[in-house]
Amino acid sequence: MTTQPETAADDVVAPPAMPNQSASGFGGKPTGFAATDVLAEGFGTPDTVERARSTPDDLQPHAELGLKDDEYERIRQILGRRPTAAELAMYSIMWSEHCSYKSSKVHLRQFGEKVPQNTRMLAGIGENAGVVQISDELAVTFKVESHNHPSFVEPYQGAATGVGGIVRDILAMGARPVAVMDPLRFGAADHPDTARVLPGVVAGISGYGNCLGLPNIGGEVVFDPCYQGNPLVNALSIGVLPVQRLQHKEAAGVGNVVVLLGARTGRDGIGGVSVLASATFDDAAGQRRPSVQVGDPFMEKLLIESCLELYDAGLVAGIQDLGGAGLTCALTETAAAAGTGMRVWLERVPLREPSMSPTEILASESQERMLLIVTPENLDAVLATAEKWGVWATAIGEVTPSEAGGQPGRLVITWNDHVVVDVPPGSLADDGPVYARPLREPGDLILLQADHAETLPRPSTPDELRETLLRMVGAPNLCDKSWVTEQYDRYVLGNTVLAQPEDAGVLRIDERTGLGVALSVDGNGRYARLDPYEGAKLALAEAYRNVVVTGAEPAAVTDCLNFGSPEDPAVMWQFSEAVRGLADGCQQLGIPVTGGNVSFYNQTGAAAIHPTPVVGVLGILEDVARRVPMGFPAPADADGDLLFLLGDTECELSGSEWAWVTHGHLGGRPPRVDLAKEQALGVLMARAARAGLAVAAHDLSDGGLAQALTESALRRGVGARVSLPESDDPTVPFVHLFSESAGRALVTVARGHEQAFVELAAECGVNCAQIGTTTGEPELEVRGQFTVSLEELRAAHTATLPGLFGGTAELANRHGAPEEAQRPESTTLAPETPALPDTEPSPGPSVTLELTDPARKGGEEPREGAADPSGS
Amino acid sequence: MTMRIGVVTFPGSLDDGDAARAVRLAGAEAVRLWHGDADLHGVDAVVLPGGFSYGDALRCGAIARFAPVMETVADAARGGLPVLGICNGFQILCEAHLLPGALTRNQHLHFRNRDQHLRIGSTSTAWTGQFTADQEILIPVKNGEGCFVADARTLDELAAEGRVVARYVRGNPNGSQRDIAAITNEAGNVVGIMPHPEHAVEALTGPSLDGLGFFASVLHTLAGAPASSR
User: Fold this and answer.
1) So where are chain B's domains?
2) Residue B227 has pLDDT above 80, yes or no
3) Which residues of A are known catalytic residues?
4) Which residues take part in binding Mg(2+) 1 (chain A) (predicted)?
């Protein structure tokens, strides 16, 4: 049974003799790791199938690997013997919560059951990522995933490899990855550990994503003490493919060659999915650093280019990325999907560390690797392409027939002629345990929901209101996030039409037709804590709204469900409610969930995070030139443009940012969500965008109307004057400014178009009220209440994150001073180093006005910096 | 005749497609050049694009300068071929000693991406002839290692000889000495610039159209230059 295919061990391609070898860390001779060396180094015979048969009573560390007693018994039943050490490791990985979805499966089925088949869907749940057709020729694929646990243990590499992993999922579908987004959640902004985690996570995303050449077009940065020991680092990627380039993971075609492409395999990430991602954190979390993978974005860039070249040349019969669960997952899933068997010679896997055991090779989560299924006649061409890009490619096995009687084939893995694995691949990939875990509403929920924020003391005078506004726009969750987003490249690839801080990222997909997509990803753990069913719907509604305000038509959904331990019935109840809410919501909106990820065990000790469903919505724009941006444009004349508030404002303060910031309060019921109204808003915005009726639009969510006005005004430094409804109750203006009622948007309409817009809103059934105008003055005025200059507003909005995590000035003091002392030109350097526009008050109205140049539309307004003092 | 402008792709180049798009929008033909191919395929000018050639291993641009294509580019540049190095391309030109100085880690140690105002300092290079003296332009800057440094004598020389092509104004994004954003060689045919003109060539995707000026300038230069000087 061990006939070696012609593609023997010397079919190993070394990178070409380019100077990159030595420098990029993958130098060394590909044949220099011969496994005999390993044996010579004193490693004994591995645990073989033969040995397992003859020593049935050997004790095995299944519990340490995360397998329950009954799960271990089932493995013995499946195999008819005890598993070998390598097999045990493989089952522990594939049957982990992370890979098997054993606790979530019974709930996730709703996503398939509740949404009617959508003709746009080319691939859905179960594939590496969902694929949505957007024109006759083109499709996009997108997905969001978590990398929470690794990012807490080792923030830089955890976050970096989170980006790398999701990008490979997109690549595996046949798509060129074209953008990333990162919804991030951290503990309290001023907690010392947040100062460790956040800068590391942001630098990791920046370091990996930027080097990969993918624009980062949006995401979230949220702070809440519930994430202190369990930050959430979710990563979303989107890719584009010609419809006919769609790839599959099936290892079809008996006799086809199994090729491992990309980085060499090392000891990093062993136990990542089973030990790290599938258990609750305890005091030993810091010792798990070796379970975090280490990323090399340069290798991933080469991997992307070589895979795309292989797809275009039609050289790939099947492909699967290696991420969590590494080679184990890729081998078993590709074989199981095809029903074939597979024969793998493990000693051929190029190693970074020659002493690795077969178990370690199978369990390694080393990054930047793909598994290809290739016909024998195409093998040389595949190896040549890999060589062109300087990527390792190694034939490690072949596809074997299914068993007699049509039974699926077996996965047989040898290591230097020792059979270390002989299993039915489906038992690992598809037939893992499934649990209907007990559910119980959290005991404190009734009391929590009874504790409304609507009864908290509210500001009632103009001065209090003004002070509240300045405090709110500088709150960590509402403040300017440039400290984070300026570390991301948003321009690369040249198709970014809108990026953060816009409501949604908008990408041009087809340069000839202007066809594009809008993407937003949102979540609100506080809402979900108060009501996970409604909270999930609210997350969906917000992402949906963020997409529709750009004028795009929503088409598909991806989700990342971040929860505590599924072994806690209260957490499991939250999970089941959130999934039900999201599935119901998607059904009502008619947009399918195309894929996503579940992250359990976001919990330290008994303290779970807020249930945090994060939802990404993808919309389609027929012509991105028609997209509606967020910021007020410079008004055409002194009268300004007209501001309309769409939707209904109720007194909904429970779970709001205001209740949290000013009272430290979380209780009551989250805002009511009416998806029919969200849909009507979507129809209105799409039609208004097509007709060119809206010059700007911004959704209302956290922080309410006050936040929307602030962000819209500061975007391009254009002021506004608004009037709020009059009432005898002095707190009514406050409610209108800070209530977080769903289904609302602030739309700017140029004079002359107001009648058409109002009529269109009526036709679409959307309530619409003119609340004010933009102005030529650099200030925000709430009539009868207060006026605040944009300068003051910007200072309050932008100072927070640099104050917490270090602005350029602080760094200049810490790192720049000694350098300056050595440099004769330090005198010229010093004045401009404080490029610190982030924290310094802006220079004043004249500059602010200058920034409203209408020719600059399409990009961000430049921040006012210190005027050039030297001109040297 | 349509001018042909080469855009080099190194392993790890990222803005090569954008540079090619900018060349096309300026009205020239973009010719993709491969790092391992020493042949310039008869192009009239070369753009070294942004990115992380060879993963920025060792030092930004340090390995790329030894790529086969760079030996030809360096020879041709010394012979007068217009060459524009953007971001990583600027770093490569410095490593190749076609331009003086070096680009080091941003002083604040972060990668920074923002829309940046520049003031054009020299309009007598092959790549800036279409700008006016002291013109202020707005193009994106995005780098982690864009802090230009050189010894004082070099800085004085650059200033005295009018070889500072652009300076940062309204804020220095990376701590570059004397706010230097772009410089040229003595002949004015080789320009290195840290910000990205290729990202400011379309109203839809850029903060302005100011980046087109660099590409329009070289086409104008080439149209007016005698063939022998190329």
Assistant:
1) 4-229
2) no
3) 98, 147
4) 145, 597
**Pick from A660, A708, A680: nearest CA to A527:** A660
Q: Looking at the partner chain, which of B18, B36, B111 has a beta carbon nearest the beta carbon of A487?
A: B111
Nearest CB among A23, A624, A823 relative to B58 is that of A23
Superfamily designation of domain B4-229: Class I glutamine amidotransferase (GATase) domain (3.40.50.880)
What is the pLDDT at residue A20? 30
DSSP assignment string, A481-499: -HHHHTTS---TTS-EEE-
Residue A145 tokens read as: 């995933």
Q: Which residue of B has its CA nearest to A493?
A: B18
Q: Each residue of B41-93: pLDDT tens digit?
A: 999 999 999 999 999 999 999 999 999 999 999 999 999 999 999 999 999 99
Average pLDDT over residues A56-61: 92
For chain A, report the end-to-end CA distance as a whole number of angstroms. Answer: 77
Q: What is the pLDDT of residue A291?
A: 65
Q: Structural domains in chain A?
A: 12-429 (3.90.650.10), 458-561+611-797 (3.90.650.10), 806-856 (no CATH)
- 237-296 in chain A: CB under 8 A from chain B: 296
Inter-chain residue contact B11 with A16, CB threshold 8 Å = no
Q: Considering only residues 192 to 221 of chain B, which have any Cβ-Cβ distance to chain A shorter than 8 Å?
A: 196, 198-199, 202-208
Q: What is the ipTM of this complex?
A: 0.96
Contacts of B203 in chain A (CB under 8 A): 857-858
Place of tokens 């990563």: A235
Kindly tell me if the per-residue pLDDT of A816 is higher than 80: no
Interface of B with A in 79-98 (CB under 8 A): none
In chain B, the percentage of residues whose pLDDT exceeds 70 is 97
Of A547, A502, A585, A617, the C-alpha closest to A238 is A617
Could you read off the pLDDT of A320-373 as tens digits, one per residue? 999 878 999 999 999 999 999 999 999 999 999 999 999 999 999 999 999 999
Cβ-contact A344, A406 below 8 angstroms: no
CB contacts of B172 in chain A (<8 Å) are: 832-833, 835
Q: Cα torsion for B172, A822, B92, A213, to the nearest 10°?
A: -50
Residue of B nearest to A492 (CA): B15
Buried b / exposed e over A318-350, threshold 16 CB at 10 Å, is bbbbbbbbbbbbbbbbbbbbbbbbbbbbbbbbb
Encoding tokens for residue A720? Answer: 């506004």
Give me the mean pLDDT over the A69-96 stretch: 96
| Residue where the block lists tokens 């003055």 | A777
Contacts of B52 in chain A (CB under 8 A): 210-211, 297-298, 301
Residue B173: name the closest of B118, B121, B112 by CA: B112
Alpha-helical segments (H) within A17-154: 20-24, 35-40, 49-54, 69-79, 85-94, 97-100, 105-114, 148-153
| Over residues B120-139, mean pLDDT | 97
* Cβ–Cβ below 8 Å for A492 and B155: no
Cβ-defined contact of A486 to B110 (cutoff 8 Å): yes
Active site residues of B: 87, 196, 198
> Number of C-alpha atoms within 13 angstroms, CB side, residue A108?
23
pLDDT beyond 70 at A829? no
Confidence of residue A273 (pLDDT cuts 50, 70, 90): low
State the best of B15, B32, B110 to mutate against chain A, taking most chain A CBs within 10 Å.
B110
Strand B164-169 with A779-782, pairing: unpaired
